[in-house]
Amino acid sequence: MSEPGTVAHRLAELGITLPRVAAPVAAYVPAVRSGNHVWTAGQLPFVDGVLPVTGKVGTADGLVTPEQAREMARIAALNALAAVGELAGSLDRIRRVVKVVGFVASDPSFTGQPQVVNGASELLGQVFGEAGVHARSAVGVTVLPLDAPVEVELVVELR
Fold it and tell me: Most buried residue, 83, 98, 110, 133, by most Cβ within 10 Å?
């Protein structure tokens, strides 16, 4: 059982189990620390090593809805937090979330990338409160690795 006031306790209150760190899909590491900051690699929305949804958001076939993509952004953010936690030793060391970059594989006519990446941003706010409020970019791209609908990167400052 986690102590009140810890990030682990807050995750438990939210009914969230932090995943294991996702294995890299190429030649990189999940996160790097420089000084008091940690940069994560782009994290895909893996659940137990599998992408639950693949494809582009906003296409006529509707294979990936904006709502599904929003949930995938939330999952990718959890994967990024797992990478930070493993590198930092504890998520309680996070002073604040500095920046989120979200990539959304989407149809050229789709303009809802900010709402998709809100899945990540809102999760961080729920977990860290004011310390989870961050600068952000939400970018539409043609395709992402393994045909993932979203990819999320974090920059956090440690205590």
Answer: 83
How far is it, in rounded angstroms, from Cα 112 to Cα 73?
Answer: 13
The CATH number assigned to the domain holding 112 equals 3.30.1330.40
pLDDT digits (tens, 9 = 90+) for 84-136: 999 999 999 999 999 999 999 999 999 999 999 999 999 999 999 999 999 99
Does 17 score more than 60 pLDDT? yes
Token duo for residue 75: 């999952």
H/E stretch holding 71 reads helix 66-88
CA 36 from centre of chain? 20
Q: Does the model's pTM come out above 0.85?
A: yes
Phi/psi for 116 (5° steps) reads: -65, -50
Q: Specify whether the CB–CB gap between 134 and 121 falls below 8 A.
A: yes
Measured distance CA(114)–CA(108) in Å, rounded: 15
Q: What is the pLDDT of residue 5?
A: 73
Q: Are residues 76 and 128 in contact, defined by beta-carbon separation less than 8 angstroms? A: no
1 occurs within a structural domain: no
Q: Is 63 helix (H, G, I), strand (E, B) or coil?
A: coil
2 lies in some domain? no
